Amino acid sequence: EAQVLESGGGLVQPGGSLRLSCVGSGFSFSKISMNWVRQAPGKGLEWISVISGHGRSIEDADSVRGRFTISRDNSKNTVYLQMNSLRVEDTAKYFCVKEENKGHRYGLDVWGQGTTVTVSS
Amino acid sequence: DIQMTQSPSSVSASVGDRVTIACRASQDITTWLAWYQQKPGTAPKLLINAASSLQSGVPSRFSGSGSGTYFTLTISSLQPEDFATYYCQQGHSFPLTFGGGTKVEIK
């Protein structure tokens, strides 16, 4: 069974940094693009970043471009989200999500339980 | 960016009711549309992709239809476990975007 498990969330001051990690298992990790999606408290879902299986293709949302960086280490079945210059509005639960095996057009089919990031002074 | 607009934002319904949720895209996304179900405190679950393809294990009372810019998710006979928030999401192009969600509540 395919699974992903996030870690690394916590409380950080505005302007600070945090790195989230996500370990995948039960699927061919290096062949699948991985995404980060966030959900602010009581709000909807916001896609923020994707990295291709080989790591050479990356897309970001405007809201995080230049501040957040997605990366992956296929030897560790792990994808990362480096978050810099954090803002109060980045407070959210961050989900690591596997895209469907046929590609992003077919949706996001495996979600982690999420890790919570709180940006506050 | 492609904007996704869901309606209604909430619906009150009873067990056994037929419920339809609409999702409109700001431009043609052919059939690159997915639907998710999210229950409080849990991660979203992919129900339908490619507008109408039911994921394995999802009950047949769920169905999706549409193409271009207008899509619907229908629950033919609402069950107690279906009370949740539902999101549409376009997979046509990056950035991937979600609708604002539709909360299905107990009447």
Short description:
Chain A is mostly beta strands and 121 residues long. Helices cover 0% and strands 50% of the residues of chain A.
Give the tags.
heterodimer; A: 121 residues; mainly beta; 7-stranded mixed sheet; 50% strand; globular; B: 107 residues; 4-stranded antiparallel sheet; 0% helix
Characterize the structure shown.
The complex is a heterodimer of chains A (121) and B (107). The mean pLDDT of chain A is 97. By secondary structure, chain A is mainly β. Chain A has strands at 3-7, 10-12, 18-25, 34-39, 45-51, 58-60, 68-73, 78-83, 92-99, 108-111, 115-119. Chain A has no helices and eleven strands. Helix content of chain A is 0%, strand content 50%. In chain A, the strands form two sheets. In chain A, strands 2, 4, 5, 6, 9, 10 and 11 form a seven-stranded mixed sheet that branches. A four-stranded antiparallel sheet of chain A has the order 1-3-8-7, with no helix packed on it. Chain B is 0% helix and 50% strand. Chain B is built from no helices and eleven strands. In chain B, strands 2, 4, 5, 6, 9, 10 and 11 form a seven-stranded mixed sheet that branches. Chain B has a four-stranded antiparallel sheet with strand order 1-3-8-7, with no helix packed on it. In chain B, β4 and β5 form a beta hairpin. Chain B starts with a strand and ends with a strand. Chain A binds chain B through residues 35, 44-47, 50, 59-62, 95, 100, 104-109, 111-114, and chain B through 1, 32, 34, 36, 38, 42-46, 49-50, 55, 87, 89, 91-92, 94-101.
Shape of chain A: globular
Distance N to C terminus of chain B: 36 Å
Order of helices and strands of chain B: EEEEEEEEEEE
Output the number of helix runs of chain B: 0
What is the topology?
The complex is a heterodimer of chains A (121) and B (107).
Chain A: E1 3-7, E2 10-12, E3 18-25, E4 34-39, E5 45-51, E6 58-60, E7 68-73, E8 78-83, E9 92-99, E10 108-111, E11 115-119
Parallel strand pairs in A: 2-11
Antiparallel strand pairs in A: 1-3, 3-8, 4-5, 4-9, 5-6, 7-8, 9-10, 9-11
Chain B: E1 4-7, E2 10-13, E3 19-25, E4 33-38, E5 45-49, E6 53-54, E7 62-67, E8 70-75, E9 85-90, E10 97-98, E11 102-106
Parallel strand pairs in B: 2-11
Antiparallel strand pairs in B: 1-3, 3-8, 4-5, 4-9, 5-6, 7-8, 9-10, 9-11
